[in-house]
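hi! just following up on the protien thing from before. the input was this:
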Amino acid sequence: MKKLVIIGAGSMAEAMISGIGASGLLPGEQIWVTNRQDIGRLNQLEQKYGVKATYDYNELFAKADAVVLAMKPKDAASAIEEIRTYLTDGMLVISVLAGVSTKAIEAAAGKSLAVVRAMPNTSAAIGKSATALAVNDNVSALQTVLVKELFNTVGLTAIVKESQLDAVTGLSGSGPAYIYYLVEAMEKSAVEIGIDKQTAKQLIIQTLLGAAEMLSKSDKEPAQLRFEVTSPGGTTEAGISILDQHGVQTAFISCIKEATAQSKKLGTLLGNELATGSRRF
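and the predicted 3d structure came back as:
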């Protein structure tokens, strides 16, 4: 790849720029970025990462190999409307727009395109994202390898069916927020039982890191690992019994299902908006 264009300059765009640059996959001068109107933000990215920024679409898209759609989903219809004439058959279009299907993107562009949908999460900012990728029929094997290389710079990647992406959004896309929610509760409980917040935070973080490492390296199922910590009549069993009484596991399952349903709902709304916008041309 000789030129990557990113439309949008938010936190996900910056995470990708940072990861790609740090990995050495592409030098900064081969990454071009633009946004709707925040020139200050573009200048910041130029200075920090050595990328190129412009509002001149002829310059932006000239000889581009791949284009990342990283604007806010609510801005997708107007953004694709503006750039549709610059999207060519040979370009790889990579979308990080939650819920927006590959067909909706093609409909908005008014042409057949090679489109990859990516669902990273905010841990991309530290190179620890869990990113699911879904490709349409126009994406070549070489382009699939290319997009995996791009997202491997910000964490782990997995190829899934597009029909699974709403579930991925509910599970790992929103997943970091569920963990932060749990940590909030653990911090509050620590204060109530007499542990200062700073000490509690250090202990909680290390506990999470250790548990994640165990899950990563052990062949045992999570239930077995939990069982091995839970001695009959012990402290862990007492704590787990309260979680069971409050239906915490059931609540987490419902949480992920609801987030998945919301992703489907938003995707339908955004897809309709994109399709409606495309019929104006």
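Residues 248-278 form the longest helix (31 residues).
The first strand starts at residue 4 and ends at 7.
cheers
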